[in-house]
Amino acid sequence: MGEEPLSGRKFSMLSHHLHLRVPDPIFRRLKARAEHCHRSVEEELIDLAASASSEEDALSSEQEQRLDAMKAPTDTELWSVLRRPLPSTSARALERLNQKRAAAALSEAETRRQARLVEQCEWNMLVRAQAASLLAERGHDVTELFQP
User: The pTM is what?
Assistant: First the structure.
């Protein structure tokens, strides 16, 4: 991961290059949001990540314990976790709710379902990132999984 300043944006810190695979429905939604706001997909993604990483979203002690417990698995188990995507049914359901929200307001039940799916997606990404980090610390090359 290289570092470089984010020039021309509201962020004045170093940035890191990150390559990741994004399911097509999520990417299309992200691209549409970016176009709607007259921004690049990168700027939209950075804005979403910044919004999602507020202090209110700190991990619960249970989540921290679950992440800490990941340090014990074998490399084979970590590779298995890293290759496990978000369940496609969850990704499709979240995409449908996002599309509906763009066109009309969601019901309370739909808003709660959307929040649960977002939390599930975020947890899945966090667990996979932890697995990648541990494998990299153990000397494995995990970059193959993050190539476009």
Answer: 0.51
